[in-house]
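Obj.: predict assembly geometry.
Materials: sequence records (below).
Method: joint structure prediction, all chains together.
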Amino acid sequence: MMTTSPDFAIETHGLRKVFGPQVAVRNLSLTVPRGEIFGFLGPNGAGKSTSIKMLLGLVRPTAGRAQVLGAPVGDVAVRRHIGFLPEDFRFYEWLTATELVGLHGRLCGMTPARLRSRVPEVLDQVGLTPHRRRTLRGFSKGMLQRIGLAQALVHEPDLIFLDEPTSGLDPMGRRMVRDILRAERDRGATVFLNSHLLSEIEVTCDRVAFIKDGEVVATRDLGTGWQDETRVVVHAHGVSADAIAGLAPWASSPRLDGDHLQFTVASDQVLPHVVRHLVAAGADVFGVNRERMSLEEVFVTLMGEDRGL
Amino acid sequence: MKPIWIMAGLTLREAARRKILWTALLAGALLLAVFAVAMRLQVAEFQGRAMSPFVRYQVEAGMLMIGLYTCDLLAVVLTILTSIDTLAGEISSGTIHAIATKPIARWQILLGKFLGFVGMISTYVVVTFYATIGVAYATTGVLPQHPVRGLLLVIFECMVALSLTFMFGTWFSTLTNGVLVLGLQGVAFMGGWLEQVSGFSQSVHIVTLGIVSSLVMPGESLWRRAAYEMQTPLAGSLSFSPFANVSIPSLTALAYAGLYFAVVLTVAVYHFNRRDL
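Observations (raw structure tokens):
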């Protein structure tokens, strides 16, 4: 039996999903603290959408365990506290914006009295008040994303899953989503954000997990230490293979290109150790250059070269 | 309001917006007009002839059965065409994701949708049946023996077809679903005729084939029982057609149809509950 901590909105252990011969999610183990905006990053085909679907009970895991808001995945009652914006949100086109949001609110058990005040409020939040009486048939992709966001938020959930929420949105729409996510976090909600837009993640999320081939390969706390992650280029002669292998305790992804040795360190603090190690291993060090890595660079470093996926 | 009723209401509204429903109502209205003209012509023709009122009544009752059979066919086709997309289409488009992640169990989604369709189909059947009966009564004074029994059996026949579109809809695409259920309906139709033929034929093989066909899809046997309930007692012996019965489906056949419906709907719920969305 998995023990759950009240501090975590999501806990998974060894979650796995296999579709026939294809492994969609290999071994997903992660914890998402409550009250944070959590970014879920990975290349196409890494298993992000399948992971979200498992957490929402849409897809049945082949193996592993997971709890969402303290309940096992698939629990119907806990969904009252969960909101979800699917990728490419679509719904019955004949419903008006007000009807759609009201319908989803009713499905979440909201009373008609509460809906009367809440529906206009949430439509205003996503900027659809002028279109509240229009049917979805005439909605653009960006408007559909906005109404999708409204149905995910109408019941003021404790945990919100958003799958590519800014897809189809213009820059103003993206800013609106960012503001809404921050407001939701300030309200105490946890946001689980799946996005390709690393720049969006970088400015919005408190924490990110990188998923590759169906496994979490790294997590970063964007609020505090992640910016210490540094790429280092050392200009040196006579760097042996043994010297490179010996960098493992401090550095990752080392690569020697002529006289330039490139690697990544988690913190500047380890640089003196690295230089001492190289000198002791017989290398002549002429210079050390450091540069901060953007989230995109961290992503590329972790995921490796484009494999054409 | 319980989620299952929210789904039923939503499905009813969704189904009512489909063009196919209004097309079917239009088709029903046109057929009713043709039926009314035919009945009047028949009445006019009878007036010119010396005919026993008894025989005349039987012929007019037979014509009423033709009208009701047409209503039955339209209702079954409408049931299949409107419902093949409801699960299959929403699964493939992803529309179901926004619903299935709400605090509503999958069985409630499925049964809510099912109830919505039953509401729509029942309304259609009641309207077309009573309009047909009304026209027949107004022109000839003829009435079916047990219209309510017949009506309920036809609605049940539609529910059997509906359970199949729901079950296959949890596995297959809209198109495959439609082909499968219409194919089964064809089997049922053939089974009905074979069982009729078996009333005359001495071939054991034909009897067996007819029974097997009706077991695979018992929809048509429900219509034949409905026809038996509605027709005049003598009509069955007058002719051999889908509107009158030589071989009357027994109460056991009705019980089998009930069991078939329950099993198919249970399988639909079970599979929808387990499948990935």
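Conclusions so far: Chain B touches chain A at residues 1, 3, 6, 10, 13-14, 17, 93-95, 97-105, 274, 276-277 (CB under 8 Å).
To do: check interface contacts against the pulldown list.
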